[in-house]
Amino acid sequence: MNSEFTIAVHSLVYLAYRPDRMATSDTIARNVNTHPSRLRKVMSCLRKQGFVSTKEGTGGGFILVRSPETVTLAELYVATSIGSLKPTWCSGSSDESCMIACHMSEVMDDIFGEAEQQLLHHLRRMTISDVLERVREAQKQKA
Fold first, then answer.
1. Whether the model pTM is above 0.85
2. Of 121, 108, 32, 40, the residue nearest 78 (C-alpha)
3. Which single residue of 27, 45, 85, 94 has CA 20 to 30 Å from 36?
4. What is the 3-state secondary structure (H, E, C) of 7-33?
């Protein structure tokens, strides 16, 4: 799984936590602990998908436009990371005469595809609001 998913979830949870649901890219980047340009790349993807909008000028930034109760982690995974569970390289070659070597890549593609479907099934049950609640619970336990 790539880090864009984690950045997306963290950013939207942070915006959901803020009273005005808005923050600058620099503020979000500091909270996520990533470079502002990397954060802006992820937020641009989220803007294109309709999760956030932008306000230009002084007092501007990214604004969470969807309700945190309706944004599932599965939606964010699809927007930022679909297909990333599968490795970019797999052993074997379809040109080989060995049964194992010539089918391993295809079989592993199926396995990773099935795993990704299970992950999506799990992530569909969690929203940005749920993650924020978990953060609040973690804070209570720490106190």
1. yes
2. 121
3. 85
4. HHHHHHHHHHHCCCCEECHHHHHHHHC
Q: 3-state DSSP call for residue 3?
A: helix
Using CA atoms, how far apart are residues 72 and 113, in angstroms rounded to an integer?
Answer: 20
Q: What is the mean pLDDT of the chain?
A: 93
Residue 6, token pair as written in the block:
């984690």
The b-or-e profile of 12-51 (16+ CB within 10 A means b, else e) is bbbbbbeeebbbebebbbebbebebeebbebbebbbeeeb
Which fold would CATH assign to domain 3-142? Arc Repressor Mutant, subunit A (1.10.10)
Distance CA 14, CA 136 (A): 12
How is residue 135 written in tokens?
A: 């953060």
With left for phi above 0 and alpha for psi between -120 and 50, is residue 57 left, alpha or beta?
Answer: left
Domain ranges of the chain: 3-142
Per-residue pLDDT tens for 75-84?
A: 999 999 998 8
Q: Which of 34, 28, 50, 24 minimizes the C-alpha distance to 2?
A: 34
CA 45 to chain CA mean position, Å: 11
